[in-house]
Amino acid sequence: MKAGEAGITVANKAQAIYANYLEKSEKTKLAMFMEVAERAEAQIAADSKNANAYYFMAYALGRYSQGISVAKALAQGLGSKVKAALETAIKLAPKHADAHIALGAFPCRGHRQGRLAARPHPGREQGRGPGDVQDRAQAQSDLGDRYGRICERPGDARRREKMKEATKLYEDAAACTPLDAMERLDVEMAKAELED
Q1: Does some domain include residue 110?
Q2: N or C: which end of the chain has fewer CB within 10 A?
């Protein structure tokens, strides 16, 4: 935070990850998500072209909305705010893989399948090497779309088939070699989901 504007995205990522994966107190977790959303909103006011600010506002509000009642989330219009922020992030940074994932997972925010898909990786649009950006963004966008299709019609007769597809995706995720500490948390979450 002392780094000012340049450090806000890093602070938002760190706090969102901590709140999502590690914080035990539901009350503290919700407060942390609201802090991230407020900082991101202030970032947007200062720089309306900051794709990661929109992404983290969406991420934090989405996670916050999962921790409150459906009626309260609807009354606050959180669903439309999250969707609009994700769409803006993608418009500003078409290769923002995590915004694509989160938007693809948007229909299943309340379902277990949506938890893994909607995880923050700001800066991934910058890639890790030549050709990596487009391939990774496309793969993650496809993954988000697949998660969205899995959760579109939870009462559908094809649910069992879709659950098999979700299980396969978790198996693929659990077999990944993490590239950083946050990806390790994702791999561990996938393994935990498979054990359930």
Answers
A1: no
A2: C
DSSP reduced 3-state for 130: coil
Q: Write b or e for each residue in 53-84: b if 16 or more Cβ atoms lie within 10 A of its Cβ, otherwise e.
A: bbbbbbbbbbbbbbeeeeeebeeeebbebbee
pTM above 0.85, yes or no: no
Q: Which residue has the tokens 């879709």?
A: 162
Instruction: Note whether residue 64 is domain-resident.
Output: yes
Q: Which two tokens stand for residue 14?
A: 């760190």
What distances in angstroms separate CA 53 from CA 56, 78, 112, one per listed residue?
5, 16, 26
Residue 50 is assigned to a structural domain of this protein: yes
Q: What's the gap between Cα 161 and its chain centre?
A: 24
Residue 35: inside a domain, yes or no?
A: yes
Q: How confident is the model at residue 130 (pLDDT cuts 50, 70, 90)?
A: very low
187 or 112, which is more confident: 187
Q: Which domain holds residue 64?
A: 1-92
Query: Is 146:167 a contact under the CB 8 Å cutoff?
Result: no
